[in-house]
Amino acid sequence: MRKLLLTLFFILFAFPVYALELLMAHNPKCHICERFINEVAIDYHESSIAKTIPLVIINVYEQPEWFKEAYRIGKIKPIRGTPTFIIWNGSKDGGHEIGRLVGYHSKARFYSRLKEMLSIED
User: Fold this and answer.
1) Mean pLDDT of 30-54
2) b/e map 103-120, b = 16+ CB within 10 Å
3) How far apart are alpha carbons 22 and 55 in whole angstroms?
4) Quick one: fold of 16-118?
5) How many CB atoms lie within 10 A of CB 95?
């Protein structure tokens, strides 16, 4: 029994757990991006879905190095317009894109599409 508990302890704490993140490719000159920030991002962290997939806003003109590297090696597909929402699975160093939403129409539609992609029911 002791060996089993030690094994479980090792498995649970020896390997890092990576969560999902919602990366928003944001252009400060994009009026649709600004509308999203004013309508959704302002209180996104208080939503129930934020516990599952926190929002990280990335300025397309000031990308962090890990983002540039992930893009360079193909872990992030090309961004053809903003806003683009990338569902990122894993750490900054070892993660990868698993899905994306392109564009923004309304708060209700955004949450509906995101929940659908994540298979979350209301």
Assistant:
1) 96
2) ebeeeeebbeebeebeee
3) 5
4) Glutaredoxin (3.40.30)
5) 19
